[in-house]
Specification:
This protein is mostly helical. The protein is built from 12 helices and 3 strands; from the N terminus they run H-H-H-E-H-H-E-E-H-H-H-H-H-H-H. Strand 2 and strand 3 form a beta hairpin.
Length: 191
């Protein structure tokens, strides 16, 4: 009851609610998993989340000089996170999907990353979903992500030669035009 009262009082300040939990009680891999769910902007199928997590956590493993079984780690992380910050449900098509427990988690994560283009780029590339770019675009319009940060993410994607980027060239070009991200690289990209 005290906790719910605290949450209600701080509803407009997600940092007050989630900062201690994310900074003190979660490890890097737990935060990564939650961030992947946040940047999908909707429920994400378990298989897609696993693939994205494996892609992005391999970077963290190299940086931290660690090696874990991806499948075991994913299962253990989900076990801890479901019920506290993530929800797990079965879709109409009997597909396991994950979403955040509360919209204030999304607000907190987006605010924490609003000036971190390199980190956002890693998440976008790991997810391999255009939804994450549309989410960022809408967050720019709502002033929850800095335009400069968004532009750096888009410019980095333009320079990226991955198959993922090639798969959504039209969407990327539309975002460049919508947000007026013009320079020699984007002009060549659009041409």
């Amino acid at each position: 009851e005290k906790y719910m009262h605290y949450v209600e009082e701080n509803f407009d300040n997600p940092k007050e609610i989630w900062e201690n939990y994310f900074d003190q009680q979660m490890d890097e891999y737990q935060r990564i998993l939650v961030e992947l769910v946040v940047y999908t902007s909707r429920a994400i199928p378990e298989a897609a989340l696993k693939r994205a997590f494996n892609r992005i956590s391999s970077y963290a493993d190299k940086r931290n000089k660690q090696s874990f079984s991806q499948a075991i780690r994913f299962e253990k992380l989900v076990e801890v996170l479901v019920g506290s910050v993530l929800t797990k449900r079965l879709s109409f098509w009997s597909e396991v999907q994950y979403s955040t427990f509360n919209p204030s988690i999304n607000d907190y994560i987006l605010e924490q990353n609003r000036n971190s283009p390199d980190h956002i780029l890693q998440i976008v590339i790991a997810l391999k979903q255009t939804d994450s770019l549309y989410l960022l675009s809408s967050m720019v319009n709502e002033r929850k992500v800095d335009l400069e940060c968004f532009q750096l993410v888009i410019l980095s994607l333009v320079e990226c030669k991955s198959e993922f980027v090639k798969s959504f060239l039209v969407e990327l070009a539309a975002l460049i035009i919508d947000h007026e991200i013009y320079n020699s690289k984007t002009e060549n990209f659009i041409d």
